[in-house]
Design goal:
Blueprint: E1 3-6, E2 16-22, E3 29-30, E4 35-40, E5 45-49, E6 54-57, E7 66-68, E8 72-77, H1 92-96, H2 119-128, H3 146-154, H4 167-182, E9 185-193, H5 195-204, H6 210-222, E10 231-232, E11 237-238, E12 245-251, E13 254-260, H7 268-283, E14 297-301, E15 320-334, E16 337-351, H8 357-373
Parallel strand pairs: 12-14, 14-15
Antiparallel strand pairs: 1-8, 2-4, 2-7, 3-6, 4-5, 6-8, 9-16, 10-11, 12-13, 15-16
Helix pairs in contact: 2-3, 6-7, 6-8
């Protein structure tokens, strides 16, 4: 029986997705769980996987097409089976929504010309942010090799070629602008003695990071403050039944929010393993829809970059984001006497449509108390 492949929806507000490339071509045999296409949503660029074994058939959307969520873009069929006949094809308007480009944009290779790309080259292109349509292959029959991709990544842009934003950078710019313009942000700052957090990390071993501990402690605190874990629907707030912590992960040219689901009940080992897996796949461009879907609260940690403190922008439709600075020794008053303590600065950004200052302050106090004691 034929199985449809549809454009996935990662958030309620998402209306369309864009096909970046097909990793398999029509007629190829595919296995369940195998990546078959790259798509771009209003949140991230990611791979979609086959949901069944079979053969790819009835491909209805080409690279560059913008497709409504939930619409079939291809089928998985058994050998000899024909894909179902669709009532209507993709609208021309959907195909052309994003095709207009500045007249100064460099000419691309025609879509009708099939160019061979080695698996290594395709992987390197993702990691280095190289547009394969602009790479000239030097391998047999014009095949693009890893060396071609590496050379393209090192080549300086020509004078006539404007520096273009990568897909992730452009999406990040659009999302942060939207959030900043629509969500009434307010900010609360709190400094804590991080001695307990440091002791907890030493207790659990170096495999557990400060971020792992932050995820666990913040998630457990959110259970006591459900409005901080809520979402703004556009006209009202929605209390989320699960605590899904989104971790801001730096990738080439941007940041993606990868989600640790049910973090309030997960063990430290589970959180650590999940975070490491998400970080590795995010930097390799191999995230999947469930990895970036359903986040209810974001933690952004820039302490490893030597940042003392910063204010982060909320990720819609979430209500808040917690920004974490570095742990640094400072002279503070302890029982009326100067002492040196490791101090951590946290900045909580909140959406005033969902929570008020007192509610956010109560949450931040409980987070500070949890991090100070760090009982895990």
């Amino acid at each position: 029986m034929a199985v449809s492949i549809v454009m996935p929806a990662l958030e309620m507000a998402q209306e369309t997705g864009k096909i970046i490339s097909w990793l398999k071509k029509e007629g190829d045999t595919i296995a369940k769980g195998e990546p078959i296409a790259e798509i771009e949503t209003d949140k991230v660029v990611l791979e979609i996987e086959a949901t069944a074994d079979g053969m790819l058939a009835g491909v209805k959307a080409a690279a560059g097409d913008v497709v409504p969520v939930g619409q079939t873009i291809a089928w998985i069929v058994a050998p000899g089976e024909q894909p179902p006949v669709e009532e209507k094809a993709l609208s021309q308007s959907a195909r052309t929504m994003t095709e207009q480009a500045p007249v100064t944009a460099p000419a691309r290779r025609p879509e009708s010309v099939e160019v061979k790309v080695s698996p290594k080259a395709r992987r390197m292109a993702k990691e280095l942010g190289v547009d394969l349509s602009k790479v000239v292959g030097t391998g047999p029959g014009g095949t693009i090799s890893g060396e071609d991709v590496e050379a393209a990544a090192k080549a300086p842009p020509t004078a006539s070629e404007p520096a273009a934003l990568s897909s992730i950078a452009r999406l990040m710019a659009e999302r942060t602008t939207q959030s900043w313009m629509t969500a009434p942000h307010f900010f609360l700052i709190r400094e804590i003695d991080a001695s307990g957090l440091i002791a907890a990390r030493e207790k659990h071993g170096r495999a557990i990071t400060h971020t792992d501990l932050l995820v666990a402690l913040v998630a457990r605190t959110l259970v006591k403050h459900p409005k901080m874990n809520a979402s703004w629907t556009g006209s009202a707030l929605r209390l989320n039944p699960n605590v899904n912590i989104s971790i801001a992960i730096a990738v080439k040219d941007g940041v993606v929010g990868a989600v640790i689901p049910n973090a309030d009940t997960a063990t430290l080992a589970d959180i650590s393993g999940k975070r490491q897996d998400l970080a590795e796949r995010a930097r390799a461009g191999r995230l999947h829809p469930p990895d970036v879907t359903g986040g209810t609260f974001t933690i952004s940690n820039l302490g490893m970059f030597g940042v003392d403190a910063f204010s982060a922008i909320i990720t819609p439709p979430q209500a808040a984001v917690l920004a974490i600075g570095r742990i640094a020794d400072r002279v503070v008053a302890v029982d009326g006497q100067p002492a040196i303590r490791p101090i951590l600065t946290m900045t909580l950004s909140s959406d005033h449509r969902v929570v008020d200052g007192a509610q956010a302050a109560a949450f931040l106090k409980d987070v500070a108390d949890a991090l100070t004691s760090a009982q895990l």
